[in-house]
Amino acid sequence: MGSRSKINLAYIAGFLDGDGSLMLQIKKRSDNKRGIRFMATICFYQDSRHDEPLYWIRKELNIGYVSKRKDGITELRINGFERIEEILKNLIPYIKFKKIQAKALYDCCKILQKPMNALKESDFRKLVDLILTIQKENYVSKKKKDKEELLKLLDLTP
């Protein structure tokens, strides 16, 4: 991320607290043994009429892509375990309201930087607990998977 001022990091953290989300998704995938892949995302949202801050954040972090949705909202999405870990490491000291989710996603990204075939059962179980922590702290508009469903999805049931 380079040398950013603490003020800019604090601003970005505040924006994330108010108009952002932290996600770890499990996607189906047919090209690996488990049949899944993980996707970590930091997303910032803004009314498209006032989307200048998203372009500034993208420039400051030097990553992500901005897209305009049909509902008048513009998003800045950032993916990638290494970059999200680095970004969160710098933002966590300034995050106030989403600190639990940020720390959980940070821990997920540390685990998921290993190759999928190098992950142990204990890593997957830790990921399930961290996903549930993120879900519990996030506002959800639809029902998310519970622990049993996640364990089954990751083939961790007896």
Give an overview of the whole structure.
The protein has 158 residues and is α+β, with helices and mostly antiparallel strands. It has one domain: Homing endonucleases (Endonuclease I-creI, Roll). The chain is 46% helix and 20% strand. It is built from 6 helices and 4 strands. It has helices at residues 6-19, 52-61, 81-91, 99-112, 121-137, 147-153, and strands spanning 20-28, 36-47, 65-68, 73-79. Strands 1-2-4-3 form a 4-stranded antiparallel sheet. A hairpin with a 7-residue loop joins β1 and β2. The longest helix has 17 residues, at 121-137. The radius of gyration is 16 Å and the shape is globular.
Poorly predicted tracts of residues = none
Number of strands: 4
- Give Rg in angstroms: 16 Å
- Per CATH, the class reads Alpha Beta
The CATH topology assignment is Endonuclease I-creI
Count of spatially separate domains: 1
Going by CATH, the architecture would be Roll
- Strand residue content: 15-25%
- Average pLDDT number: 90
- Overall shape: it is globular
The residue fraction in helices comes out at 40-55%
How far is the N terminus from the C terminus?
A: 43 Å
Counting DSSP H or I runs of 4 or more residues, the number of helices is 6
**How does the helix and strand content classify structurally?**
alpha+beta
